[in-house]
Each structure stands twice: as C-alpha cells, then as structure tokens.
Amino acid sequence: MKTTSVGRLLTNDKHFSVYAYDKDTSTKSACDEECTKTWKPLLASRLAQPRGEWSLLERSPGVIQWVFRGKPLYVYVMDPGQWSFEGSDNPGWSNVFAQRAPPPPADFTSQDTRIGSVLADHRGLTIYRYICGDDSLDQLSCDHPDNPQAYRLAMCGAGDAARCLKNWPYVIAPATAKSTSRSWSIIEIDPKTGHRAAAGAVGALRVWAYLDSPVYTYGADSHPGDINGTSTGEWRGQRNGLKAFSLRDDMFRSNM
To answer: How many CB atoms lie within 10 A of CB 107?
Structure first.
C-alpha cells in the first residue's frame, strides 16, 4: 500500500502498482494469454483463502489469481518503477485504491503540465504546498501555521512577509466557499506573521488549507500549466520549500 495525493494505492509485495481491467468480473478474466504477456496476474498461493473484500479466481487448474472488490488484479510489466500510474493510461485499465482521497474544493481545477497533472485554482494556476522539516535531531515538522514561521519566511521572501505574499500568494477561499472534507479546510491567516488569526480579525485572510496547512500559487506563474515554482527550496523542496500539488505522483517523481 502506498499513500499518494489521490488515495491509498494498492501495490504488490514489491511495491509495484496493481491494476484492474474494466472487462473483468469477479469470476472471469477477459485478459487472455496474449494479454498476460503485458499484464501479469497477481497470483495467490494454493493455501490462500478468500476474506472480506478479497476473493480468488482460478484462471486455470492450480493457477489462482487475487481478486479485490470484484476485480482480478494484475501487474503491468511496462511500469518504470514502484507505485506507478502509467498502466492506467491504457484504455480499460485502472490503478486500484483501497481508499480514495477526498476530492479538492469545487472551485479548484486540474492542469496538464510537463510533470503531469497538477491541482490548479479557478484560473488554472498551479497550486503549491509548503513542505518543511527543521534541522534539529528530531526533524520536527515546520510547515503548519501553528509552527514557527522563520523557515518559511526565509525561504519565500528572505524573511520579509510582504515579499512572501508577493512571491507565494495564499489561495483565497471565496466568501461562499465551504469545506467538504477533513482534508480540505478554510482557515484564517494573519498575513504579517503566517500564523492563524482569530475569525474576523482585521486584515486576516480566509484561505484554503490542505491537511490544515495553507496552499499557495506562485507569483511568476502567469499561464495555466506553468510550474515555475515547483521544487523551490532545499533538496528540491523536500526539506524546506514548495512543490506543485501533483495529481500524478509518479510523474512528479520521474521529473524531479
């Protein structure tokens, strides 16, 4: 299992994605001998037993395939690496998720970019997440508005909050917008400090947050699909920086 931006992705024991075929049923596979040269059935041992959402399909005498939620499972031999989404680019095939992530707010969109599909605002401008782990031995998180903001301010505006606002504007939530899940919320932020503000406080911004942390656009992005700000910061944004909110984790990884 792999946690991705779009849900809990099902994988095999070597962490490669497993896939389902639209034409299959729980009792019959439409993937014939030629098909299985590209799509290898995920096989179970002879001692395997059905349980819960898992069942079994006997493809031929003694050859048992795992079935999840009524769909036989396969591994795509052309996948370039672990937890890939590339197999789902083939018509009729899809990745399998144990749990889907809640959808983003309705006024968000998606855009195709050179690193794959990313989340975007209503104008089509790429959404970014701030990621931070401090330099202490414990590597504590520092990307939440309740944390000290020194790292973020240093990275996004050389310590100047006004420059940060210009370089990395918060994604403002419209007055009529409402949170629809625990993943996506609307919070009040004091733009001068980056900390939470009391509801209705003078000068506070009402912004979208993912997992309680604000999301941003980039001041140098001007057209839908621009990702000029991705991987800004230390270690390509993984230690202290910003990354595009990728909807295709495998594409984001392969273009880092």
So the answer is: 13
